[in-house]
Design brief:
single chain; alpha/beta; 12 helices; 7 strands; disordered N terminus; binds S-adenosylmethionine
């Protein structure tokens, strides 16, 4: 049962897009230029720019995430946080085309409106203005929860709480999928350059560098089946964590 939001999926309900959720301090301080400023969306949301920021790995990582949903019927999927580029429209078409539904949560209405524009009125998708730290959604509700490059932007305590929430809302037997930065292999020439870049521009990202997902998931989830794939000399990870059936 949903709490606080209408049960019928549909991407057009403006009340859900802007519920007056406070903007977290770390976003206001460190990412106003990337997500909050009205010009930010116009400037950054271009495939070639996000692809460049991910060192030309955007499409590869997007497709690695989408592969996890291919051919799965009737899934109830939650994407925690909007993403620039075309991850969400492609995921939405894949999930709803297979008879499932997609909920996308973001703390910023401007980001949800941007995704709404990109979805073009697709049915079976809800856009929800919520903070990933305290998502107002029922427990054990989703088959899959996707976190695409969210965790590296969050301070340690927020990241832990986001993961706590992701594992709360996923069903027994469901999956939490993380695509994000990781610590590159020792031979990766980007290792030192990128460490410095992240330290300056992404102040919380090195948390994912120094700690594998096995350490970051809530303590009660540490024994869950976990499959990790690494990309671009280890700089990026896709980690799929499967919750045991009840
Ligand atoms: C997924 S991350 C970054 C992804 C990637 N860098 C890109 O190219 O878009 C960006 C999104 O996370 C959202 N976000 C950050 N902290 C959040 C939180 N606590 N709750 C919900 N959304 C959050 C931001 O509003 C933004 O839309």
């Amino acid at each position: 049962m949903d709490r606080g939001i209408a049960a019928e999926p549909g991407a057009t309900d403006d009340a859900r897009l802007s519920r007056g959720v406070p903007v977290p301090r770390y976003l206001r301080l460190h990412y106003w230029w990337a997500y909050i400023h009205p010009w930010a969306v116009k400037f950054w949301d271009r495939l070639w720019i996000v692809n460049l920021i991910l060192l030309t790995n955007y499409m590869k990582l997007r497709d690695a995430a989408l592969k996890e949903f291919a051919g799965l019927r009737g899934r109830r999927v939650l994407q925690l946080a909007c993403v620039y580029g075309d991850v969400t429209p492609k995921l939405a078409r894949c999930v709803t085309g297979n008879g499932g539904t997609l909920d996308v949560v973001d703390v910023l209405p401007i980001q949800l409106r941007n995704v709404q524009r990109k979805l073009g009125g697709l049915h079976g998708v809800r856009l929800l203005n919520m903070d990933s730290e305290k998502i107002d959604l029922p427990s054990q509700h989703y088959d899959d929860v996707l976190l695409f490059f969210l965790l590296h932007e969050q301070p340690k305590a927020v990241r832990a709480q986001t993961l706590e929430q992701a594992f709360r809302v996923v069903k027994p037997g469901g999956r939490v999928l993380v695509v994000d930065f990781a610590k590159p292999y020792w031979w990766n020439p980007f290792r030192y350059l990128w460490c410095a870049f992240l330290a300056v521009f992404e102040p919380f990202a090195l948390g994912l560098w120094w700690h594998p997902m096995a350490e970051l998931v809530p303590a009660r989830c540490r024994g869950f089946a976990m499959q990790e794939e690494r990309y671009f000399g280890g700089l990026f990870q896709k980690t799929v964590i499967v919750c045991p059936k009840a």
